[in-house]
Design brief:
The protein is built from five helices and 16 strands. It is of the alpha+beta class. Strands 2-3-13-9-16-8-5 form a seven-stranded antiparallel sheet, covered by helices on one side. It has a four-stranded mixed sheet with strand order 1-12-11-14, with no helix packed on it. InterPro entries: OGFOD3 (IPR039210), Oxoglu/Fe-dep_dioxygenase_dom (IPR005123), Pro_4_hyd_alph (IPR006620), Pro_4_hyd_alph_FE2OG_OXY (IPR044862).
Length: about 250
């Protein structure tokens, strides 16, 4: 892997760490939205937006939802927006599959906390990149992930490949991750790695830590394979294009 630098250690308690990087040309292939499309690009890490206690509460939402299904491989997904839930080698729609029983699994408070956390992350991204929070829209996929050391059974399980979010999902402009478990305590491996020309920069997950970045090729990245334990996180994605916006999940 060449030279590796740690951008954020698990033991750090970072108020705000931001590194500006020149924007790639990826955004030029799409319609630009004034006051939102990245003109300043980079990556940031903060431990000051979501508390560890809130992260523990959100993790319990993920655990309850994922206990209903789970992938045969090492990576399981729960998307409260679309209802997508890993089940064996496939996905089911949580809301259709479980119907009214969903009320026994999640509460209105769960969804309110989820919404509040998402809004705070959105505001912090807007503040750091100097854009208007109201010009950003939540986009899909936005989902919980649970990763363990089980081998991959389908291509969905192979989460460790280097990729660029905007190349994978054209709607993405800003990507964020909220970590819900601790590197080296809850799991080994599973660090987030930015792959730069000169070196790799890693973020060690810590419950409550938010890592966020512009979604273009300036932030090529991957996740290391989890070696032991279980890693929980939420990927929360934003677009500048209102046509690709989605609403917060509702417990209906």
């Amino acid at each position: 892997d060449g030279v590796t630098e740690v951008l954020a250690h698990r033991s750090d308690n970072l108020r705000d760490k931001f590194i500006e990087i020149p924007c790639s040309e990826d955004y030029d292939s799409y319609k630009r939205f004034a006051g939102c499309t990245p003109r300043k690009c980079g990556r940031g890490v903060t431990d000051a937006v979501i508390t560890r206690e809130e992260a523990a509460r959100i993790r319990r939402i993920a655990e309850r939802g994922l206990s209903l299904g789970g992938s045969d491989g090492g990576a399981s997904i729960l998307d409260l927006h679309s209802g997508a839930l890993s089940l064996g080698k496939h996905f089911v729609n949580l809301y259709r599959y479980f119907g009214d029983k969903i009320q026994d699994i999640f509460t209105e408070e769960d969804f309110a906390l989820y919404r509040d956390v998402r809004q705070r992350i959105q505001q912090r991204i807007a503040q750091v990149f100097g854009i208007s929070s109201s010009a950003m829209y939540l986009t899909k996929p936005t989902f919980f992930s649970r990763m363990n050391s089980t081998g991959a059974k389908t291509t969905h399980d192979e989460y460790w490949h280097p990729h660029v979010d905007k190349v994978t999902y054209g709607s993405f402009d800003y990507t964020s991750l909220l970590y819900l478990s601790d590197y080296s305590e809850d799991f080994g491996g599973g660090r987030f790695v930015f792959l730069d020309a000169d070196s790799n920069k890693t973020v060690e997950p810590r419950a409550g830590r938010v890592s966020f970045f512009t979604s273009g090729s300036e932030n090529l990245h991957r996740v290391e394979k989890v070696q032991w334990g279980t890693r929980f996180a939420i990927t929360i994605s934003f677009t500048c294009d209102p046509e690709h916006g989605i609403g917060d999940p509702l417990l209906a």
